[in-house]
Design a protein that fits this description.
This protein is mostly helical and about 80 residues long. Helices cover about 65% and strands about 0% of the residues. The protein is built from four helices and no strands. α1 packs across α4 and α2 crosses α3. The radius of gyration is 13 Å and the shape is flat. The relative contact order is 0.22.
Amino acid sequence: MTQLETRFERAVAESKTLPERPDNAMLLQIYALYKQATEGDAQGARPGFTDFVGRAKWDAWHALAGKTPAAAMQEYVDLIESLK
């Protein structure tokens, strides 16, 4: 495991114990960066318009298309650090 992967794993654990709950926009960014780092570009069809939460998550993830997993991991780590 690389140093970045280790820091990413630590940031994932720390994201569950932040002093304050982030707002919805920040939560979407955290989600999208995590998915991009662990799975790559968004897969599957965009959820229907009645699935508001699923659609918002997919859109946030899809907006990161083309970002490398390493870049997404680094952004995730930096974001969690800024929220502590």
